[in-house]
Amino acid sequence: MFRDISFIQDSLNVLSQTAIDPQTLIANSCIVRDRVSGSFFVTGAGGLPIRPGDPAPSPYPTGEIQSPQNPIMEPQGIYKLPNGQYLMSRECR
User: Fold this and answer.
1) CA 88, CA 93: separation in Å to the nearest integer?
2) pLDDT exceeds cutoff 70 at 48
3) Three-state secondary structure call for residue 29
């Protein structure tokens, strides 16, 4: 019923008590290499809009949503069939 987990008994390590400062990690990974100029290129390969407020580009065509021609008819009751099965349906007119 229980799994054998004895293999992890001696594999645990003591964690360092020194706290990690995430701000330092982020700041060191985002060092500006050239303070004179920077650039940002829009290549059109992503799903981001070109300008804020613009809709996101879609590789798939979007069509118009059509409403159903025949409305869905809700069942009026549960009826027992001759074979013993039950059926949710409307009364026949």
Assistant:
1) 16
2) no
3) helix
User: In the predicted model, what is the mean pLDDT of residues 3-20?
Assistant: 76
pLDDT score of 22: 74
Q: What is the DSSP letter of 10?
A: T
User: What is the rounded average pLDDT of the residues 40-66?
Assistant: 68
Helices (H) and strands (E) in the chain, counts: 1, 2
Question: Per the structure block, which two tokens stand in for 36?
Answer: 């004179």
pTM higher than 0.70, yes or no? Answer: no
Under DSSP, is residue 77 helix (H, G, I), strand (E, B) or coil? Answer: strand
From first CA to last CA, the distance across the chain in angstroms is 60
- The torsion angles phi and psi of 23, rounded to 5 degrees, stand at -65, -40
